[in-house]
Amino acid sequence: MSRVVYFDLETSGLSDRAEILQIGAYDPDTNDAFERYILPKKDIPPGTTQHNGFELINGQLYQNGDYRSTVGLKSALIDFWDYLNDLPGGAVTLTGHNIFNFDCRYLFRGIKSCNLVGPFSSVIEGFSDTLPLFREHLPYLANHKLGYIHEEIVGGGFLEHDAVCDCIALSTIFDETGLEDYISDHAESFDDLLQEDNARIATKQRLSTMTELMNHGVSYNMLRRMAEAGLTMSKLRSIWYNEGGCSGLEDYLSEIMDNGKPRVTSHPYSLGIILDAVSHFV
Hints:
The protein is α+β, with helices and mostly antiparallel strands. It has helices at 46-52, 73-86, 103-113, 117-123, 130-137, 146-153, 163-177, 190-208, 220-228, 233-242, 245-254, 268-279, and strands at residues 3-11, 20-27, 32-37, 54-57, 60-63, 66-68, 92-96, 124-129, 187-189. It has two domains: 3-200, Nucleotidyltransferase, domain 5 (2-Layer Sandwich), CATH 3.30.420; 210-279, no CATH class. The strands form two sheets. A six-stranded mixed sheet has the order 3-2-1-7-8-9, with helices on both faces. Strands 4-5-6 form a three-stranded antiparallel sheet. β2 and β3 form a beta hairpin. The longest helix is centred in the last third of the chain and has 19 residues, at 190-208. The radius of gyration is 22 Å and the shape is elongated. The termini are far apart.
């Protein structure tokens, strides 16, 4: 596996519309840290301020009451690329806590919006998420939040929800546990995660066309399965009109795929709910 660099982001919230506020990274081999603060374009919700201490005051960014000098998102990302590119040893594995479900989403959105996918793919070999690693190798802990793990393993506290402090805390946990050799077990390549992120966004877009079906009994989880199968409202209508109406759509939804599972569902009750809901829109 390539060189491990610890990585963390702080954002203005948890939604897809949230903005990156801080990029942090730490290279344990050189003891070299990276940090940039980004001025958001929108207000920071009070709940975010309570969580990570960031707030906008008179158009300036503050963290726990302290002013932070900021740059634009693209400038911060270019500086981050420069930092990674200057590290010895070639492309790195960005390693962080719960990054597959959180940080990677915002990083990919940022580098895509700034047309920096190519440059970043040359300096990042992959990503590794330490949350499943610690769940596997430290199962006796009451929970696997970063702050709790650090308190139990290292002792003492640190400034949680500061990107650089989170990175350094994560590094010290590995120093204490000696679990570095397992980082590669929970790694995915840059290209694979990028494809997964693109697929996630496409699924969300397809799902958004079918939300009216929820008013007729279709659950959100079922809608997500339908969207993952490539369905949209217009495609549902097309199948209904061109493939024999209700029975044709039922056959399409329940068709057994190469993996031995139905395209969406073969459960009669679930199929009945979907077919009844779609019938209101054809």
